[in-house]
Design goal:
Helices cover 30% and strands 25% of the residues. It is α+β, with helices and mostly antiparallel strands and 170 residues long. The structure holds nickel (II) ion (NI). Nickel (II) ion binds at residues 91-93, 133, 137.
Length: 170
Protein backbone atom coordinates (compact mmCIF):
# COMPACT_ATOMS: atom_id res chain seq x y z
CA UNK A 1 0.00 0.00 0.00
CA UNK A 2 1.05 3.57 -0.52
CA UNK A 3 0.02 6.99 0.63
CA UNK A 4 -1.00 9.15 -2.31
CA UNK A 5 -0.75 12.90 -2.71
CA UNK A 6 -4.08 14.64 -2.12
CA UNK A 7 -4.67 17.64 -4.39
CA UNK A 8 -5.62 20.92 -2.71
CA UNK A 9 -7.45 23.91 -4.14
CA UNK A 10 -6.78 25.92 -6.29
CA UNK A 11 -5.51 22.88 -8.27
CA UNK A 12 -7.62 22.71 -11.44
CA UNK A 13 -7.25 18.94 -11.63
CA UNK A 14 -9.92 18.84 -8.92
CA UNK A 15 -12.31 20.09 -11.62
CA UNK A 16 -11.82 17.10 -13.94
CA UNK A 17 -14.73 14.75 -14.47
CA UNK A 18 -14.03 11.10 -13.67
CA UNK A 19 -14.95 8.34 -16.08
CA UNK A 20 -16.78 5.08 -15.24
CA UNK A 21 -14.74 2.00 -14.37
CA UNK A 22 -15.60 -0.79 -16.80
CA UNK A 23 -13.29 -3.47 -15.43
CA UNK A 24 -12.82 -3.99 -11.68
CA UNK A 25 -9.35 -5.49 -11.82
CA UNK A 26 -6.32 -5.60 -9.50
CA UNK A 27 -5.33 -2.05 -10.41
CA UNK A 28 -8.72 -0.80 -9.18
CA UNK A 29 -8.40 -2.84 -5.97
CA UNK A 30 -4.90 -1.45 -5.43
CA UNK A 31 -6.12 2.11 -6.00
CA UNK A 32 -8.93 1.56 -3.49
CA UNK A 33 -6.56 0.24 -0.83
CA UNK A 34 -4.10 3.12 -1.41
CA UNK A 35 -6.96 5.61 -1.21
CA UNK A 36 -8.13 4.10 2.09
CA UNK A 37 -4.62 4.27 3.52
CA UNK A 38 -4.30 7.90 2.36
CA UNK A 39 -7.68 8.81 3.85
CA UNK A 40 -6.78 7.22 7.19
CA UNK A 41 -3.39 8.95 7.24
CA UNK A 42 -5.12 12.31 6.76
CA UNK A 43 -7.93 11.58 9.24
CA UNK A 44 -10.61 11.89 6.58
CA UNK A 45 -13.94 10.08 6.38
CA UNK A 46 -14.20 10.05 2.59
CA UNK A 47 -11.98 10.34 -0.47
CA UNK A 48 -12.72 10.37 -4.18
CA UNK A 49 -10.21 9.24 -6.84
CA UNK A 50 -10.32 12.75 -8.36
CA UNK A 51 -8.61 14.04 -5.20
CA UNK A 52 -5.59 11.82 -5.84
CA UNK A 53 -5.51 12.82 -9.51
CA UNK A 54 -7.07 9.65 -10.88
CA UNK A 55 -10.07 10.29 -13.15
CA UNK A 56 -11.98 7.13 -12.30
CA UNK A 57 -15.36 6.84 -10.61
CA UNK A 58 -14.17 5.39 -7.32
CA UNK A 59 -14.93 6.57 -3.79
CA UNK A 60 -13.84 5.30 -0.37
CA UNK A 61 -15.62 6.10 2.89
CA UNK A 62 -15.15 5.08 6.52
CA UNK A 63 -17.33 6.73 9.14
CA UNK A 64 -16.13 4.61 12.05
CA UNK A 65 -13.85 6.10 14.70
CA UNK A 66 -11.52 3.09 14.65
CA UNK A 67 -11.13 2.84 10.85
CA UNK A 68 -12.88 -0.51 10.84
CA UNK A 69 -15.75 0.13 8.42
CA UNK A 70 -14.15 0.74 5.01
CA UNK A 71 -16.63 1.15 2.18
CA UNK A 72 -15.54 1.17 -1.44
CA UNK A 73 -18.03 2.43 -4.01
CA UNK A 74 -17.25 1.86 -7.68
CA UNK A 75 -19.30 3.88 -10.18
CA UNK A 76 -21.68 5.25 -7.52
CA UNK A 77 -24.82 6.98 -8.73
CA UNK A 78 -27.73 8.40 -6.84
CA UNK A 79 -31.06 7.05 -8.02
CA UNK A 80 -33.31 9.15 -5.79
CA UNK A 81 -33.09 12.01 -3.32
CA UNK A 82 -35.48 13.16 -0.62
CA UNK A 83 -35.66 15.59 2.25
CA UNK A 84 -32.95 18.05 3.15
CA UNK A 85 -30.32 18.22 5.82
CA UNK A 86 -27.81 20.84 6.92
CA UNK A 87 -24.42 19.58 7.97
CA UNK A 88 -21.00 21.01 8.67
CA UNK A 89 -18.64 19.74 5.96
CA UNK A 90 -14.92 19.70 5.44
CA UNK A 91 -12.69 18.25 2.72
CA UNK A 92 -9.14 16.91 2.50
CA UNK A 93 -8.70 19.07 -0.63
CA UNK A 94 -9.66 22.21 1.32
CA UNK A 95 -7.81 21.66 4.62
CA UNK A 96 -9.03 23.39 7.78
CA UNK A 97 -12.12 24.88 6.18
CA UNK A 98 -15.52 23.83 7.52
CA UNK A 99 -18.91 25.19 6.56
CA UNK A 100 -22.55 24.25 6.41
CA UNK A 101 -23.99 22.71 3.25
CA UNK A 102 -27.60 21.73 2.58
CA UNK A 103 -27.97 18.34 0.93
CA UNK A 104 -30.59 15.64 0.53
CA UNK A 105 -31.37 13.77 3.73
CA UNK A 106 -32.17 10.36 2.27
CA UNK A 107 -30.70 8.93 -0.92
CA UNK A 108 -30.85 5.68 -2.80
CA UNK A 109 -27.44 4.91 -4.22
CA UNK A 110 -26.35 2.23 -6.67
CA UNK A 111 -22.71 1.17 -6.99
CA UNK A 112 -20.51 -1.84 -7.54
CA UNK A 113 -18.27 -3.32 -4.86
CA UNK A 114 -14.75 -4.60 -5.52
CA UNK A 115 -16.18 -8.04 -6.37
CA UNK A 116 -18.16 -6.44 -9.17
CA UNK A 117 -21.52 -6.97 -7.49
CA UNK A 118 -24.11 -4.26 -7.99
CA UNK A 119 -25.54 -2.95 -4.74
CA UNK A 120 -28.46 -0.64 -4.16
CA UNK A 121 -28.92 0.97 -0.74
CA UNK A 122 -31.14 3.62 0.78
CA UNK A 123 -29.13 5.58 3.33
CA UNK A 124 -29.44 8.72 5.43
CA UNK A 125 -27.51 10.88 7.89
CA UNK A 126 -23.76 11.36 7.62
CA UNK A 127 -23.32 8.47 5.20
CA UNK A 128 -25.82 10.01 2.75
CA UNK A 129 -24.13 13.41 3.02
CA UNK A 130 -20.69 11.87 2.54
CA UNK A 131 -21.75 9.97 -0.59
CA UNK A 132 -23.17 13.16 -2.10
CA UNK A 133 -19.97 15.06 -1.27
CA UNK A 134 -17.74 12.35 -2.82
CA UNK A 135 -19.84 11.94 -5.98
CA UNK A 136 -19.58 15.72 -6.43
CA UNK A 137 -15.78 15.30 -6.48
CA UNK A 138 -16.11 12.78 -9.34
CA UNK A 139 -17.97 15.49 -11.24
CA UNK A 140 -15.36 18.16 -10.48
CA UNK A 141 -17.46 19.86 -7.83
CA UNK A 142 -16.35 20.92 -4.32
CA UNK A 143 -18.40 21.61 -1.20
CA UNK A 144 -17.23 25.23 -1.18
CA UNK A 145 -19.06 25.68 -4.50
CA UNK A 146 -22.26 25.69 -2.43
CA UNK A 147 -21.09 28.64 -0.30
CA UNK A 148 -21.68 32.29 -1.12
CA UNK A 149 -19.32 33.77 -3.76
CA UNK A 150 -17.88 36.04 -1.06
CA UNK A 151 -16.96 33.14 1.22
CA UNK A 152 -15.68 31.04 -1.67
CA UNK A 153 -13.43 33.82 -2.97
CA UNK A 154 -12.02 34.38 0.48
CA UNK A 155 -11.17 30.66 0.77
CA UNK A 156 -9.59 30.57 -2.71
CA UNK A 157 -7.48 33.65 -2.00
CA UNK A 158 -6.17 32.06 1.19
CA UNK A 159 -5.13 28.89 -0.64
CA UNK A 160 -3.63 30.79 -3.58
CA UNK A 161 -1.43 32.68 -1.13
CA UNK A 162 -0.49 29.43 0.59
CA UNK A 163 0.42 27.89 -2.78
CA UNK A 164 2.71 30.83 -3.69
CA UNK A 165 4.36 30.56 -0.30
CA UNK A 166 4.97 26.83 -0.73
CA UNK A 167 6.32 27.24 -4.28
CA UNK A 168 8.73 29.90 -3.06
CA UNK A 169 9.95 27.64 -0.28
CA UNK A 170 10.53 24.51 -2.31
NI1 LIG B 1 -13.99 16.30 -0.21
Amino acid sequence: MAILEVLHIPDNRLRKKAIPISDIDDSVRELASNMLETMYAENGIGLAATQVNVQKRLVVIDLSTENTDAKVLVNPEILSFSGSEEMQEGCLSVPDVFDTVIRSEIITVRFQNLDGETIEETVDGLYAVCIQHEIDHLNGKLFIDYLSPLKRNRIFKKFEKLEKFQTRDS
